[in-house]
Amino acid sequence: MSEVFSSPVLKVEQPRRGPFAKSRYKVLDGDGTVLAIAAETSDKGRAETLRTVFPGKSDLDARAVLLTTPDGEPLLVVDKRQGRELTEVLQPGGETLGSFVMERVGRRYLIQDGAGDTIGAVAVDLPRNNFEVIAAKGDKVAHVRKKWAGLATHLLTTADKYSVEIFDPVPEPLRTMAAMTAIVMDMNLHESKEIT
Questions:
Q1: Helix or strand run (H / E) with residue 152
Q2: Of 27, 24, 16, 2, nearest to 164 (Cα)?
Q3: Which of 190, 182, 196 is nearest to 89 (CA)?
Q4: Which residue, among 155, 131, 153, has the nearest Cα to 141 in the 3D structure?
Q5: What are the beta bridge partners of residue 27?
Q6: How do residues 159-185 score in pLDDT, each as one tens digit?
Q7: Which of 87, 133, 148, 182 could form a disulfide with 80 if both were Cys (CB 3.0 to 4.6 A apart)?
Q8: Domain ranges of the chain
């Protein structure tokens, strides 16, 4: 879909800040060059802001992030619906590139193309730190790993770091969906720090 994510190794990072840093990401290549940045697409009201400070089950709230180039050119929108059942990846014009559909709570997600056909799946390990992206035919196409940053960082900030390794060649749109797996899984499984 885009040459922006053509590197076989990507890093996805959230800023190391307090609870207000949710749904912000940087996508870098293996050399550390920033390829894309992402931020929430809408401002939150006071009640929603308080939910981000004391999240409880806030990972069930709907939200979306807009990925842009560092120069601000729109690339994709990751639109997480209410709950964990559906997260869509949209092109700048609003067309659906693909979606992640929960098959088993927090353990397996189907990857569908824009027409709704299953093109792959994401298998999640028990601690939710390793994500295997598998094509519909059963071939492993990518591995996403969440790095442990320490207890204080995990509990008190939204900072998370992911490494993404893509085993090329992977056809589109599965390749772009594999690149978006870190952001999608973070929004679905890791944004709420569950302190309440």
A1: helix 151-156
A2: 27
A3: 182
A4: 131
A5: 12, 36
A6: 689 999 999 999 999 999 999 999 999
A7: 87
A8: 3-190
Nearest residue to 12 (alpha-carbon basis) of 146, 120, 131, 110: 146
What distance in Å separates the CA atoms of residue 196 and residue 59, rounded to the nearest whole number?
13
Longest dimension (CA), the chain: 47
SS3 77: strand
> Are the CB atoms for 153 and 16 separated by under 8 Å?
yes
For residue range 4-24, what is the model confidence (pLDDT) as tens digits? 889 999 999 987 655 544 578
Instruction: Say what the pTM is.
Output: 0.82
> How many Cβ atoms sit within 10 Å of the Cβ of residue 43?
7
**Residue 178: enclosing H or E segment and its boundaries?**
helix 174-185
Residue 2 — pLDDT band, cuts 50, 70, 90? Answer: low
Tokens of 189: 């499984």
Peptide bond into 15 cis (omega under 30): no
For residue 128, give every residue at least 6 positions away whose Cβ sits within 8 Å of its Cβ, in sequence order, or none. Answer: 106, 146, 185, 189, 190
In angstroms, rounded to a whole number, what is the distance separating the alpha carbons of residues 77 and 89? 6
CA dihedral 195, 157, 80, 83 (to 10 degrees): -10
